[in-house]
Amino acid sequence: MLFVWALALTVTVLGTWYALKHLSSAPPHMDAPFALYPVSILKPLKGDERGLLKENLEGFFKLDYPKFELLFSVAQYTDPARRVVEALMAQYPKVRARLIIGAVDVGPNPKVNNLVKSYESAKYDHLLISDSNVRVSPHYLKRVVAHLDNGVGIITAVVSGRNPKSFGGYLEAMYLNTFYARFMLIAQAMKQPCVVGKSMMLSRKAANRFGGIRTLGQFLAEDYMAGLAMEKLGLRSVIMSDPIHQEIGEYSVKDFWNRHVRWGRLRKAQALVPFLVEPLFGAMISGVMGAFVMNMWFHLPVAAVLLFHLLVWGFSDLLLVRKMGSSLKVPVALAWFARELCALPLWLHVASGNTVLWRGRTLQLQRGGMISAQ
Amino acid sequence: MFLADFHIHSTFSDGKLSIPELVDLYGRQGFGAISITDHLCESKTVIGKAAEFLNRTLTPSNFPFYMEILRSESERAWDQYKMVLIPGFELTKNSMSNYRSAHMVGLGISKFVHADGDVVDLARAIRAQGALAIAAHPVATRKVEKQTYHIWDRREELATELDAWEVASGPFLFDEVARSSLPKIASSDLHAPWQMTSWKTVLYCERKADAVLEAIKKQELDFRFYAEEPKHVYRPWDDVVRLGLSPDSYSTGNLVRA
After folding, report:
1. Alpha-carbon span B68 to B114, nearest angstrom
2. What is this model's ipTM?
3. Which CATH code for domain A30-259?
4. pLDDT-derived band at A328, boundaries 50, 70, 90
5. Which residues of A touch B69 (CB under 8 A)?
6. Would you list the domain boundaries of chain A?
7. Is B54 helix (H, G, I), strand (E, B) or coil?
8. CB contact under 8 A, A231 and B11
9. pTM of the predicted model, to two decimals?
10. Closest chain B residue by Cα to residue A225
């Protein structure tokens, strides 16, 4: 138990140090001839993202990049995202943009189905797949492309949850800015592919070597599987040095819970061993274990050890939160406690089943991440 | 006439090299045909589950990627090296007992096969795809590793169910298989580049997947000890002499593509 406590605390502190170092570094090739790397940006859309879609998409029309195209796709003509895109296309007529309507059924993953037409009709080889709920600065695309290098298969980013406007939103932001960011970067340090579809650049030529978008349609986590498939081709996944900004806004505790049940079940299906040890790397469980062990062996007061543990852990997390671009307000500290307290119940909920609810569909997860509709 | 190797592992199971790296490794040496045959372990045994947790086996989840990468790499192997790449797997039944363990290579496969079940059923499932079923290292390999005797112990029953038996796996010839009248094949069971030095199969057919499989079936082949390193420690000729094998069929020296 002492070993587990020491390991958990060490991983947290060293992981935070590595994350801070990585997020402070400059992209390796900012002097690249960007005009030689035209990019097709693929934006699969559904709904208007709780009224945030226009602001989310507008940044892509303002990108400072010599040659790119925007491909927005909606599965149905009646999707409210269509009007938002049409209005933006009218507002920015000089930006090369297309709206693609209609999904191609290649599997149970609706996002992949929505992407197939844009993937296949994109003009350029370099594709940047980007979720509808992220926001970007004008330099974003240059900073992504600046990570292209020999042997790089996918460029992804850690997700920074910003501007929460409800307690559920603070929980969500806390999860993204601490637990996910740190473990994605630790995975990268350990040369394990860990790709997040919110920002995922790849070469279509390389992706077609593993079957391209159509093969990914069998999986719920098409992003993670793309990273894994690239690794099998001998190409590595790289996490860019800037986090991608996700506007959280109004977000209920239920939304938070459901999303992390889904993500947790994905982790369970795809990497069972890390999932099983996950609770030991939460602040509360490892802290309680450490406090009791130190009390038993060295007669140190339980409360003092636990307080020390939580201070070290909390300080590491708050440093990371600040680096990820979130402001440090009072609700952040409360959300930190709440998130740590709910980590175990959430893990138990995740462990108790294999189904996920996503975009209105109940999907059955199989080991390895394949899905079937129920 | 060209060299071929039909038992090779990639990073999809416990190999050290990715499929593209293997294609380049063999292509640069002038091989005419290879088959990547990653482990496909049982899903219901503890050992099989452990292999799955450790990502050391083909599974229904990674199999689509495996087949797609083999497809795209077979095109590249042909374009770049005029080398035939045949999709394969090694059905892997590992048990605590060597006598219950069995490995069976499928050559020219197109579909996933669950490795649970009796070896007769596995061989039939492989052949039902039009692929060849081959007994992998059926006797003692002289290597420090798990031994797999189950198929050899049932050789009379399985003689008609399998298309070939490995007469060599790596640098060693297998006495029992060499002396038998069973159809044979020689492969490296390569997991890392240093294992290139090993017995290989020599074929005389056209460089086409169908022709290669047919040549194995008809046993229109020979065996050759291929030495990557000139100063290797193995003495393959000792085995050939000891077993009284024909030097026409068991030779040494590296063929170079014409």
Report:
1. 19
2. 0.85
3. 3.90.550.10
4. low
5. 209-210, 229, 232-233
6. 2-17+263-361, 30-259
7. coil
8. yes
9. 0.89
10. B62
